[in-house]
Amino acid sequence: MTKLILALCLLAASCSSTTYYIVRHAEKQNATTMTTDVPLSEKGMARARALAELLKNAGIKHIYTTNFQRTRATVQPLASATGITVEVYDPRDKDFPEKLKKIKGNVLVAGHSNTVDDLVNELSGENFVQGDLPDSAYGDLFVLIRRGKKWTIEKRHFGE
Q1: From CA 155, how far away is CA 139, in angstroms rounded?
Q2: Residue of 103, 159, 119 lying closest to 22 (CA atoms)
Q3: What value, to the nearest 5°, has the Cα angle with vertex 90 and ends 136 and 60?
């Protein structure tokens, strides 16, 4: 009986999955100063609300963002709706993908046009995103599902 219970526990653990939702920040305002830390535009705020609406029932347990206004503002509507504390990560941290793999529960990560591809590819071990995202590309949602050692990846879209 003990062996049966142990086998069932191992089977249940191997069937569990984690979903990673990876996005680029929403549309930013045109920079009128020399700053690189610009806020979201009105269109970007609407896209951030659309992301929150899309993911509000996705079982997100962790939200990560870079330390820029536009990435924080992209995830803030979801964080506010779910009560999840947003954690800041450094996209230059080469160990970040491995840290994400150890997390239990679904994860949302907001990055930039030149970091989303690296994160998706590092997490999955595949070359799914071919280079940096175009500057004009907003609303791409990369969904990576890990079941044991198997990964499935798909690209979706959110917002107008």
Answers
A1: 10
A2: 119
A3: 75
Q: Is the pLDDT of residue 87 over 90?
A: yes
CB proximity list for 56: less than 8 A, separation 6 or greater: 78, 81, 82
**Per-residue H/E/C for the chain:** CHHHHHHHHHHHHHHCEEEEEEEECCCECCCCCCCCCCCECHHHHHHHHHHHHHHCCCCEEEEEECCCHHHHHHHHHHHHHHCCCEEECCCCCCCHHHHHHCCCCEEEEEECCCCHHHHHHHHHCCCCCCCCCCCCCCCEEEEEEEECCEEEEEEEECCC
Token code pair at residue 142: 């990369």
Could you tell me the pTM of the whole model? Answer: 0.89
- Domain range list for the chain: 24-157
CATH superfamily name and code, 24-157? Phosphoglycerate mutase-like (3.40.50.1240)
The answer to whether 142 and 155 have CB atoms below 8 angstroms apart is yes
pLDDT at 18 > cutoff 60? yes
pLDDT score of 7? 41
Residues 90-135 have pLDDT tens digits of 999 999 999 999 999 999 999 999 999 999 999 999 999 999 999 9
